[in-house]
Amino acid sequence: MPMRTLFALAFSVLSLPALAGPVEDLISGARTECRGCDLSNQSFKKASLDGVDLSGANLSGASFHRASLKGANLAGVVARDANFNLADLGGAVMEGGDFSGAMFYEAQLSAIKAAEADFSRTRMQHARLTGADLGGANLDWAIMKDVRLNNANLTAASMERTNLAKASIGRTKFDGTTIVSAGFVEVSGAGASFAGATISLTDFWGAKLDKASFAGAQANDNRFTRARVDLGQFAPGALTRNIMPDGRVQGTEQ
Tag placement on the chain: N or C end, fewer CB within 10 Å? Predict the structure, then answer.
């Protein structure tokens, strides 16, 4: 082959554009799915990913800071320690995902479908979870101060040491939920339901739980000081060793 032809071929190869990877394709919109992909430790900061299908993907350590993931499919993902601060995940499907240790500060999570998902040790301060489905989710050690959690479903969730201080939880269902050593200090929870819940060692100081339901619940060793709550609805023996709204400790009456 003539030398001139070889040089021409070499130059044409060098001139070819580099093939884009899945991260670049997702950010550019050239690709709308990456099911089961390894996207760990990648940056999607401020990316527009509405409706993208990342089900089953590895998102651990990835950054979605200020990204838009409205209606995205994140079912079954592994997103440990990922950054979703200020992200919009409204209506996203997150069922069965592992988001343990992730950050959701001021994130939009309204109407997410996250049944059986793992949100343990997450940081969700000031996040919006209105209408969220968290049935059966793991929220152990999650920091959820000042979240908006109205009209949500937390049926049969696990809430050990979950911090919901000053959260809005009106009309939310905690039915059958296990709540241990959690913080409900000064929550606003009119009409919330704790039917059949098991509640122990939890702080409800100053909580506003007007018209909340505790039908069939068991509450032991909790603090209800200054709370607005009707504790008369508990069945005999289902309310023991608690600090009552008036500061009186059950079992110490003379």
Answer: C
